[in-house]
Amino acid sequence: MGFLCCSAQRLSKITVMKKLSVCILLFLFYQSSIWATEMSPALLEMSERWAILKFDTELDQRREPLQALAAEMDQVVNEQPGNPAAMVWQAVVLSTLAKDSGNMTGLGLAKRAKRLLEQAESIDPTVLDGTLYTVLGSLYYQVPGYPLGFGDDEKAEQHLLKALDVNSDNIDANFYYGEFLLQEKRFQSAIEAFEKVLTLPIRANNRVADAGLKRAAKAALSTAKKQLQLKDVNQPGFPHVF
């Protein structure tokens, strides 16, 4: 009888695990379906080219290909007016170019990206699983503040949290929120964000970018842990009173 009970318990556990596995697969399929329905084949192909340039290409070798990709994205946006997914991806490419430029040219590109994202937000704020808010939030913490630029740490956090509200398990949203927290020296929270990135599955339609973000998260996690340790070591002790 005890053997039968144990066997029943094992079968019950196996059944539960199978159900969980099916749920996870359905969730991943749903995630992929979101992008597939919101992006044309041309956009999907361009997003993959961007990911290869962003994560698998040396900095000094990607500027011209990124500029060419940005020009193609301009054409897509012009041909598909009112398509928020196209606007977001054009903003992604422009943001990468802006970060690579690191000067007034870069600031001009960042401002263009911001306008596109705000335009997309007025059409569909949850487009591409919250990617809009992730990109806009990252711009706010990377761009200089007034009077040169529009950088604003408070707005950065607001937008990154909006992205997490859309999908708390989005790799991009968790990574860039972690990067923001690291910049803000909120090391423990940054560690938690990067650790979550490393636990999330790579999306079938976003393999190159997700793998790149996981590599970046691993390096950033190491930095955050070291900084937290240094912070703890440098904390002043209680003063001697006698």
Largest sheet: none
Query: Based on helices, strands and strand pairing, what is the structural class?
Result: mainly alpha
CATH class assignment of the largest domain: Mainly Alpha
| Rg over CA atoms | 21 Å
How many domains? The number is 2
Question: Might you state the CATH topology name of the largest domain?
Answer: Serine Threonine Protein Phosphatase 5, Tetratricopeptide repeat
The count of β-strands is 0
Percent strand equals under 5%
Low-confidence stretches: 1-36, 236-242
Span from first to last CA? 70 Å
Number of helices: 10
> What best-fitting shape do the alpha-carbon axes yield?
globular
**SSE order in H/E notation?**
HHHHHHHHHH
Mean pLDDT, all residues: 85
CATH architecture of the largest domain, by name, is Alpha Horseshoe
Determine the fraction of residues in helical runs and give it as a percent range.
over 70%
Q: What labels would you give this structure?
A:
mainly alpha; Serine Threonine Protein Phosphatase 5, Tetratricopeptide repeat; globular; 10 helices; disordered N terminus; 242 residues; 2 domains
